[in-house]
Amino acid sequence: MSSRSTRQASVLRHSALALALAIGMGGTGAVLAQSTAGYLFGTAQPGDTVEVKSGGGINREVPVDANGRFRLDNLPVGSAYDVNLKRNGAVVDSRKGVNLTVGKGTDVSFAAAATAASAQSLESVTVTANSLPPVDVSTVDSRTVITSEQLAKLPLGRTAEAIALLAPGAVSGSGYFTGPTGNALVSIGGGSVTENAYYINGFNTTDPLSGFGGITLPYGAIDQQEVLAGGYGAAYGRSAGGVISQVGKRGTNEWHFGAQVLWEPRGTRSTPGNDHYQVNSDTASAGELFNYNKKDTQMRQVESAYVGGPLIKDKLYIFLAAEQEKVNQDRYTSQDSPAYYDRSYRNPKYYGKLDWNINDSNILEGTYASNKQNYDANVYDFDYSTLTRGAFEGKDTSQNTKSGAELYTFKYTSYITDDLTLTATYGKMKGTYYTPVPDSDNPHVINPQFQDPAIVGGNPITNDNPTTRVYDPQHKSTNRNLRIDLSYHAGDHTITGGIDNQDVKDSNDGQGTSGPGYAWEYNKHDPATPIAGTPGSSSYVAAPGGDGYYVDRYVYDARASVRVKQRAQYLEDSWQVNDRWLVKVGIRNDQFTNYNGVGQSYLKLTSPQWAPRLGATWDVNGDSSLKIYANAGRYYLALPASVALRSAGQSLYTREYFTYTGIDSLGQPTGLAPIDTATGGPISANREYGIPRDPNTATSRSLKSEYQDEFILGFDKTLGDKWVYGAKATVRKLKNAIDDVGDSDTIYNALINQGVDPATIGPIQGSYLFNPGRASDFLVPNTNGGYYTAHVSNADFGFPHLKRNYYGLEMYLEHPFDGKWYGKVDYLYSKSYGNSEGQVRSDIGQTDVSATVDWDFPALMVYSNGELSNSRRHTVKAYGSYQLTDEFLLSGNITMQSGAPKDCLGYFGADESDPTGYGSYYHFCYGQPSPPGKQGHLPWTYLVDLSAEYRPIWADKKLAFSISVFNVLNKRDKLAIYPQAGQVGAVDPDYKTTLFQTTPRYARFGISYDF
Q: What residues contact residue 56 under an 8 Å CB cut-off, 6+ apart?
């Protein structure tokens, strides 16, 4: 950031809010959540004209109105602007090199120069990026904008999520979850990692399949990245977490090119410590080595380059960027499935931008972006008794070996008149996800650590198949997005309306069991109690007898081609009530339709889903030194495409139970004896027996979309002329969610209580999508034809009411860049509390969107209310840079954060039963109630990252050498522990063992050249 120039300090300052009166804040006059533009505003003498010109060929003029105000909206960011004040056709004052911040306004006010002759020398006047006043009183949302200049200085990971973690309210997602190309994810404002929206140059790039992340730009191609934690207007939606919006660089009238090489050598990486079974786990394994991490190593190298400039000066521009990341890893897995992985990743990213200034009133932009990942890993046996690597097992097929997406978009902007602007964006994103089928025909062995020690002597036996499930190698996706926005300014109002349409096609998605189509899953249970359910229940599995050891034949298959259609319309008014008050009122209507594998709609939410948005800002003193703002809004969230695979397809998910007397050399059980079950054979807890799903029985007939209500109140205040401070309170309440319920017995009993003849009740599905905590109506086949409607109240189910509340109080102090240094310190107290994290579950790593373990059966939700997995009560973030000399720059990034809540999941009730057949997933710990967070919290994390850059004058500052050290203190803090405790007499030895830790200290060296 930059301070005000000497020249501007002398200019009479008026209310910046009043300056917005000229055009308002909707559409082209709006601060849109995923905008790619900014705006200029200011005061001057009535009757004058303000002209703007950019290095990117933009040339526009607007008159100064009778109140002495002007505003130019929807100006593309990415190039500096010259702003000229003209009187009678002659330039009488000027501001040079004004940079814009995406979604925000920049004040460029002029003194009333009488004539061109009396104007000061125009060459001496310079106003740079983010010129003061630093309190932007014309916005009502909550955003953090990180510019390319800051990205070049700060020690950050080279992902959109690493940048997003600078924003208050953003916390690292579970290590279980990754994005389309393996990147870590974030939780924003208490939302789950699948509830964020991603944008590149205004196009929605969110993973259309499950919502896990989205494609992003090469790091060096990012001009600005916005992170919104709420409060955005009606033009955008489909997010209940946050928004990560990137604007790419563009060409200008000067050619620029550059290249960079970054290297993270193995030798600078600290040795991670080994993980052990917990000494208090009361098992024979207590204190023994659990995960051999000591020899885990990693090397990373990144090469990038860019070029940009005019193809036709003032008319046609191009910008191209490419980045190639290479990672080599050695990884040793835990005793649960011991192996050594020799991994390599190749992650190329590409970006291209064409900008055509057709004329002064029409602009056409084209964007290309691509993210790919190529993964290869050799898997070897590993012997924990000798800590030695064994024979080659095969290639790792547990994840996509080739994945990624390509994006093509076009955006047209037409300044029809000074008061009317049209923008239209259309694009397509194509995704690929390829994983080869394993060479092995052997069934995978699950939980070999639970093999009967009387047979294996404490040495688990496995085979050359390292993977339980395999993906369909033909998997592809297509995402089309069309949005049109029209803005009209009339007096004190700016009215904006538009449409936001998205269509997703997901082809050949899903997984099936590897090998011969089944796997063997070993386990141990109390010999005298049923493994699952009770006699007569649909999930009943008898007691194993003997010493409690048993095995099940595990079969899974859920593959299909599905579609999602999303439509939205919005209308918004930005009303300049007076010089100090601005009110922004909007309404959005979303419609969602999800289709199953045969093109039938199983979820159709097309009735009006009104999402009101209301925001206001008050320029208290009238000089932009103190802003008080507030907003309230409702945000709807659609179900992604992958939900159909299990909830509306023909999924097969069964276990067939046996005792055994031996285990062969491939880890397969021998001497099998069936254990009695409700079906006399395979059991599916959710009745997923591979039968094609009737779309009428996929969802509750009274189903409503997921939505969240949000309320924000805050202030920003200048402190002298060099500092800004402020505070903000946020309340978010999840009012409705969608998940699946598997309690078919309760649905059956509801029909009986309605007087239905039991003999006419057809098969009841084992999984319906419904709204947790609400009454639901389910269609059940009538054997005589048609359907019965079973009305089941929440009391009938015995569920608690849905709850997910987020509370946050942020306080910050910021020193804008003054040519020497920049710094910001942010403290956030927050709490995420309730009985549902959202669409996924972090503590157990469940990625089945809106089909979690939660809400399947009432027993699973007993004592479920508590502090949620993504809650962090205290967070301190500080980052900044200091220009030590003309050649040396120092920067740092510090995060101190309290730990996540601990969980202890066990069997149900004081008698440690298993009424659903789910095993150790109930909120009880060895017979005692154990709501989330009752076991305390994990330790605080302390991350300190430092960087230094040398940019020598002898190379005209075009050449730079840098070194960054991450986790300088080498703090190895726990981020997650294994939550499943088992039961008394059959304690899970993994309970409390460390799953994820902070990355050990490492260094990154860099060299770059920019011309």
A: 76, 78, 79, 250, 251, 252, 253, 317, 355, 357
Highest mean pLDDT among 844-853, 945-954, 985-994: 945-954
Pairwise CA distance, residues 644 & 649, whole Å:
6
- CA 542, 546, 552, 553 dihedral sign is negative
Task: Give the integer Cα–Cα distance in Å for 573 and 621.
Answer: 25
Quote the CA–CA distance of 893 and 316 in Å, as a whole number. 39
Name the residue type at position 352. Answer: G
pLDDT in tens, 429-472: 999 888 777 778 899 999 998 999 999 988 899 988 878 888 88
SS3 153: helix
Rounded Cα gap, residues 493 and 573, in angstroms: 6
For 520, other C-beta atoms within 10 Å of its C-beta total 25
What pLDDT does 279 receive?
56
Which token pair is 426? 């259309």
Q: CA-to-CA distance for 785 and 69, rounded, in angstroms?
A: 71
Percent of the chain with pLDDT over 70: 93
Q: What is the pLDDT of residues 9-57, one digit of tens each?
A: 323 333 333 333 333 333 334 444 457 788 888 888 888 999 888 888 8
Kind and range of the H or E run holding 745: helix 744-753
105 pLDDT above the threshold of 80: no
886 SS3 class? coil
Q: What is the 3-state secondary structure (H, E, C) of 310-333?
A: EEECCCEEEEEEEEEEEEEEEEEC
CA neighbor of 570 nearest in space, from 807, 232, 279, 337: 232
- Residue 140, C-beta contacts closer than 8 angstroms, at least 6 positions apart: 31, 231, 582, 584, 615, 616, 617, 629, 630, 631
Instruction: Specify whether the CB–CB gap between 189 and 832 falls below 8 A.
Output: no
Say how far residue 91 (Cα) sits from the centre of its chain.
48
823 by Cβ neighbours in 10 Å (0-12 / 13-18 / 19+) ranks as: middle
**What string of DSSP letters covers 918-949?**
--S-BSEETTEE--TTTT-BPPPEEEEEEEEE
List 837's β-bridge partners, or say none. Answer: none
Pairing of strands 59-63, 49-54: antiparallel
The candidate with the shortest Cα–Cα distance to 640, out of 429, 406, 849, is: 849
Residue 514: pLDDT over 50: yes
Residue 177, judged by CB atoms within 10 A of its CB (0-12, 13-18, 19+), counts as: buried
The candidate with the shortest Cα–Cα distance to 27, out of 73, 77, 71, 76, is: 73
Contact 215, 187 (CB under 8 A): no
For 151-209, the DSSP string reads HHHS---SSHHHHHTTSTTEEEPPTT-B-TTS-B-EEETT--TTS-EEEETTEE-B-TT
What is the token pair recorded at 892? 């740092």
Asked if residue 808 lies in contact with residue 853, where contact means CB atoms within 8 angstroms, the answer is no
Are 776 and 788 in contact by the 8 Å Cβ rule? The answer is no
Output the pLDDT for position 121.
Answer: 38
Distance separating the N- and C-terminal Cα atoms of the chain: 23
Name the token pair of 485.
């926005």
For residues 616 and 441, give the distance between their C-alpha atoms in angstroms, rounded to a whole number. 64
What is the C-alpha separation between 838 and 803, in angstroms, rounded? 10
Residue 82 has a CB neighbour count (10 Å cut-off) of 17
Whole-number Cα distances in Å, 631 to 164, 612, 620, 656, 808: 22, 11, 17, 54, 15
Question: Dihedral through CA 518, CA 520, CA 523, CA 527, nearest 10?
Answer: 90
Identity of residue 508: N
Whether 586 shows a pLDDT value over 80: the answer reads yes
- Tell me: the pLDDT tens digits for 286-296? 677 778 888 88
pLDDT at 334 over 50: yes
Place of tokens 């050891």: 549
> Which pLDDT belongs to residue 112?
55
- Please list the alpha-helical segments (H only) found in 46-165: 148-153, 160-164
